[in-house]
Task: inverse folding
């Protein structure tokens, strides 16, 4: 409750201010104006708009229900299958929880557990979130190319210049929030100042001006959200106390270490299974709190970076949003798309595969969490990004100038991408060699086909 009062409350007020002044429409319009005309444009719009909206909503389901009714029908109209549209919307929505500057209630509790400023958690989560959205963007692009999907006509899209002209108040509010968080370090008051600035600036335009009726609506909406969070976080606090006072957390941690036998990879696999299992029956926040008390100390004790250990269980605790049998976000999106839920869930697992992989990478290599020298961070980011490019091409069966690729090559691209991204030099070199060989064979195969046709 201390975290709720001192940190989280202000960010929920800021999120409410964005919504009541028309921030959701701005996020959709900025994504449409930038990406709507590219191939598979509606899917890319869904990803970007969901990421922007999720930065302030902090909820995958809320994200789907806010952005999905606009983007899902647009994807289907452009030629995408309903299950693909539902999966894209749900994966994009879930990623919003990972996106700074606002990452939902769990990230604030994580900062309290670690004893660090919230901005440190947001900064550490930035590169993994970027890699996740890079994977989504590439997969939607490759899928659109393979299926022959087109973008939206430019005359149906909003003007970028007009969108920025009308939405300058939201850009200003975000920059002010980041400045107050990162430079002045006034975490408790930063969102209140940003919300106040947003309300003040909104009065300059008739379309965004806050009327007494709208302000009452804002108070009601924000009050409902804060009440729901209180109902969640109060028993979570009791859970922390009970685990600490009874000693269950310490004994559970000791037993996990004994089972894993100091093997880091085995410990991570056990942690992933435990987090995923608990996430199917608990909220993300409750799941994280339980594992932060019981599992995180064991991960830290065997040598993992504390931030990496906590982000690892955070990532795996929220997998249930896109993983069967629950997959709440996918069910919400499938309802909008009128698609089979289980088929949509399987498609979402493919699109969101990086969520299952990246936590292992940053747990083993904390450079992805901005730990280490700038050179090491850039090197690690570049290798993982290259691996994701190959992995995305293999999963979707299409790769840049090579076009549609056969199944054996797809398998080799996926394996090569994973090997390159794994933070170990032998696997990286082996993966690079496998990727070069696969691409070389594909080029030779394409060249021979062209000769035969001519």
Result:
């Amino acid at each position: 409750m201390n975290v709720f009062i001192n940190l989280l409350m202000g960010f929920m007020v800021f999120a409410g201010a964005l919504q009541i002044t028309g921030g959701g429409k701005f996020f959709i319009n900025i994504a449409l104006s930038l990406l709507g005309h590219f191939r598979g444009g509606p899917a890319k719009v869904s990803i970007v708009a969901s990421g922007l909206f999720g930065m302030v909503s902090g909820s995958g389901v809320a994200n789907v229900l806010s952005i999905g009714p606009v983007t899902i029908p647009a994807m289907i109209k452009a030629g995408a299958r309903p299950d693909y549209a539902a999966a894209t919307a749900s994966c994009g929505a879930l990623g919003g929880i990972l996106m700074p500057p606002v990452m939902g209630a769990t990230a604030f509790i994580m900062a309290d557990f670690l004893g660090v400023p919230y901005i440190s958690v947001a900064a550490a989560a930035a590169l993994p979130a970027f890699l996740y959205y890079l994977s989504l963007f590439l997969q939607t692009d490759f899928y659109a190319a393979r299926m022959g999907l087109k973008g939206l006509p430019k005359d149906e899209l909003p003007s970028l210049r007009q969108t920025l002209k009308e939405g300058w108040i939201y850009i200003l509010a975000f920059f002010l929030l980041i400045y107050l968080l990162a430079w002045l370090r006034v975490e408790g008051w930063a969102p209140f100042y940003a919300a106040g600035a947003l309300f003040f600036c909104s009065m300059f335009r008739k379309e965004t001006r806050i009327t007494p009726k709208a302000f009452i609506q804002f108070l009601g909406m924000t009050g409902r959200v804060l009440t729901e969070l209180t109902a969640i976080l109060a028993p979570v606090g009791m859970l922390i106390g009970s685990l600490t006072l009874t000693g269950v957390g310490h004994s559970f941690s000791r037993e996990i270490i004994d089972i894993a036998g100091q093997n880091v990879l085995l410990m991570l696999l056990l942690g992933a299974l435990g987090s995923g299992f608990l996430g199917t029956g608990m909220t993300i926040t409750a799941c994280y709190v339980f594992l932060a008390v019981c599992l995180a100390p064991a991960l830290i004790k065997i040598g993992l970076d504390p931030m990496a250990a906590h982000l690892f269980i955070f990532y795996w605790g929220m997998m249930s949003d896109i993983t069967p049998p629950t997959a709440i976000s996918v069910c919400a999106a499938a309802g909008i798309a009128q698609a089979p839920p289980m088929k949509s869930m399987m498609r979402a697992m493919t699109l969101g595969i990086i969520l299952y992989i990246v936590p292992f990478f940053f747990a083993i290599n904390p450079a992805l969490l901005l730990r280490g020298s700038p050179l090491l961070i850039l090197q690690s980011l570049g290798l993982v990004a290259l691996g994701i490019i190959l992995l995305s091409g293999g999963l979707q069966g299409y790769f840049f100038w090579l076009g549609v690729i056969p199944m054996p090559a797809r398998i080799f691209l996926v394996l090569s991408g994973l090997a390159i991204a794994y933070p170990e030099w032998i696997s990286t070199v082996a993966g690079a060699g496998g990727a070069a060989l696969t691409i070389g064979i594909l080029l030779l195969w394409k060249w021979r086909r062209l000769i035969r046709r001519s």
User: Anything to note?
Assistant: The two ends are 73 Å apart (CA to CA). The mean pLDDT is 84. Strands lie at 398-399, 403-404. The longest strand covers residues 398-399.
